[in-house]
Amino acid sequence: MKSEKIWLVVLLISAILAQFALENSFSFLGGKINLILVALVVLINLMDFSFVIIFAVIAGLILDIYSGLPFGLISLSLFLTALLGELLFVNFFTNFSFYSLLIMGFLAAVFYHLLFSLLVVGSYFVGLSDFLPKLTDFYGLLWQVLSAEVLMVLAYYLVNMLSKRFKPIFLR
Amino acid sequence: MLEKIIKSAIYGLTAILLAVFFHYIGWLRPVENIFVTVLSPLQGLVSVGSRSTGGFYDSWLRKRDLLAENQKLQNDLIKMSIDASKLKALEEENVILRKELNFIDEKKYKFVASKIITGVSDPLSQSVIINRGARDGIEKGLAVIAEGGVLVGKVIEVNQDYSKVLLLSDNKSRVAATIQNLDHTVGLVEGQYGLSFAMTNIPQNQDVKEGDLVVTSGLEGKIPKDLLIAKVETIKAVESEIFKTALLTPIVVLDNLSNVIVIIP
Asked: Are B85 and B165 found together in one domain?
């Protein structure tokens, strides 16, 4: 349990730092990759829900500190995505397979970005922010879903190298 | 299982709502500062690394774009150099043609402008091929002039669409000429082995000086009078002979001709 907590902290910090690095230094990738979301989906498959919630809340709050949007938007979106992911995992995607990870990743990415956009629009109309997403910003959703899927594949292979939690099931 | 999920969800939501509340009342500020302070050094390190990688990618992109632009500019430069040389050639041709036109206008000659296509293929004769022939009214024996109305040759062979012109420097070339001196000395301008020409059969008693101009005499029916041919360079006189010879300097360099005019009497 102690080692799991250490892993959580290391994973959390690494994911956040990597996310910032991607946003700031690789401008062509800006807004197209969300490492925190990918880490969240992988954790849903591997860890206890309480672990996942702690990760989602803390990562979300740290990202909120650095965000220009109203405080709590990112953490709320991540939290609700984690909740949805866990419900899907418990009820439908229970076999730890490659395909269930991909489908969960897809659904989580779509849900997260739609929810996030909704909260941003809501905060604009309530008067909490001056930022209103344009229609072109929604094109980024496609990129984010695609990149999430690609990263899920990489994460799957990485976890399979380090542990036996995932079942290496592939179409033949 | 569901109860556990609901319980965790309630805790999580509560934590978020409290954090948001404390943030907006300012109580969360010290915690936020701690996070930023702790993460900053790590962020700095990661940022340096990612910026150099990102910078590498950006510089690779820039280099690729610069190379493509460089290649395009080189191609444009080559194209412009070709255009510039064409323009220069056109300008030179324009000057020559204007001079020829001025001469023609003054003398009110009928003429056919033509271009020299090529020199003849044998090395012995000093002839050129022009792009005008019988179809354009060219006849054998007509005078061919260059810029400023200087005689450079005679038509010796005519075909439908092209003709052969014998230059004055050819050994076989003979043109009846007059020196513009007091005596109006009459003689024959002959080609000198492709190098120059000379005026022969000048009586010894005729006063010919260096620098005197030599023009056509008009004694040949198809060649008009007073077409400038050359300038006297030196006089070769042998006392025992009846005639002397004047070596002439061409006014126009015959090697560089490109556009000529054929005068039609």
From this structure: no
Domain that holds residue B84: 49-108
Answer yes or no: are the C-beta atoms of B225 and B216 closer than 8 Å.
Answer: yes
At CA A53, angle to CA A47 and CA A57, rounded to 5?
135
pLDDT (tens digit per residue) in A67-93: 777 888 889 999 999 999 988 888 887
Asked if A13 and B42 come within 8 Å (Cβ–Cβ), the reply is: yes
Query: Is B43 contained in some domain?
Result: no
Please, which residues have CB within 8 angstroms of residue B197's CB and are 6 or more apart in sequence? B168, B169, B173, B189, B190, B191, B229, B230, B248, B250
Q: Are residues B259 and B138 in the same domain?
A: yes
CA distance A76 to chain B (A): 7
Across the interface, do A25 and B47 touch by the CB < 8 Å criterion?
Answer: yes
Same domain, B89 and B117: no
Lowest mean per-residue pLDDT among A34-38, A104-108, A114-118, B36-40: B36-40
Looking at the domain assignment, is residue B138 inside a domain? yes
Structural domains counted in chain B = 2
- Write out the residues of chain B at the interface with chain A, using a CB-CB cutoff of 8 A: 1-2, 4-5, 8-9, 11-13, 15-17, 19-20, 23-24, 32, 35-36, 39, 42-43, 46-47, 49-51, 53-55, 57
Q: Please give the ipTM for the structure prediction.
A: 0.78
pTM over 0.80: no
Q: What's the pLDDT tens digit per position in A93-125? A: 777 778 888 888 889 888 988 888 888 888 888
Pairing of strands B163-167, B127-130: antiparallel
Best to test chain B binding among A61, A64, A84, A89 (most B CBs inside 10 Å): A61
Regarding whether B144 and B132 lie in a shared domain, the answer is yes
What 3-state class would DSSP assign to A96?
coil
The reply to whether A22 touches chain B by the CB within 8 Å rule is: yes
**Between residues B39 and B248, the one the model is more confident about:** B248
Q: Where are the domains of chain A?
A: 2-162
- For residue B231, pLDDT beyond 80: yes
Q: How far apart are CA B86 and CA B80, in angstroms?
A: 9
- B93, B117: one domain: no
Q: What angle do CA B131, B134, B138 make, to 5 degrees?
A: 75
